[in-house]
């Protein structure tokens, strides 16, 4: 096939302990999926229908690479998340079949230009300029579910320069992983290579150049990156 311009390199994530890599198709993010975070963001902690936004596959930052502080913002926040990687998809996936789609898990950061996001909220506009900017999705290597199973409980936390900022437990997810997959498949045709960032616990806050971010999800691993 002849392209009029060179095609972009495919986005991918490494797989822990493997030379193979995981090709990334889309990145779906779940908003306000921990009650305490919903409250701190001015939302309702009750179990409302989930809502989603997207990041772009080339927003990923891999292998502990630096996170460059983005332009057009003076208030960039960290949001630590469990990442779910799908090895197959479909539409209208039944709840009892949803976990069959999961390849594995990772630790991710949904970096957010909060000032731009807040401006979008006030005007009723989409969040892309606050969420889907370059290098806004640092992510660890993926760990296959065949090795670790499907984590349903365990600590999730983020330290900034060694000081704990965010802390929660996976059992506090309002919408659980199979529910997210099933619900998303009613809205989109999920594909092999899709990632789902499952939401963040309370404690989100600003980062500054020079900060060292260390995130952890029990049973999955850790992610470290520096803000530059």
UniProtKB/TrEMBL annotation:
<dbReference type="InterPro" id="IPR011234">
    <property type="entry name" value="Fumarylacetoacetase-like_C"/>
</dbReference>
<dbReference type="GO" id="GO:0046872">
    <property type="term" value="F:metal ion binding"/>
</dbReference>
<dbReference type="InterPro" id="IPR036663">
    <property type="entry name" value="Fumarylacetoacetase_C_sf"/>
</dbReference>
<protein>
    <submittedName>
        <fullName>Fumarylacetoacetate hydrolase domain-containing protein 1</fullName>
    </submittedName>
</protein>
<keyword id="KW-0378">Hydrolase</keyword>
<dbReference type="GO" id="GO:0018773">
    <property type="term" value="F:acetylpyruvate hydrolase activity"/>
</dbReference>
<feature type="domain" description="Fumarylacetoacetase-like C-terminal">
    <location>
        <begin position="27"/>
        <end position="228"/>
    </location>
</feature>
<keyword id="KW-0479">Metal-binding</keyword>
<dbReference type="Pfam" id="PF01557">
    <property type="entry name" value="FAA_hydrolase"/>
</dbReference>
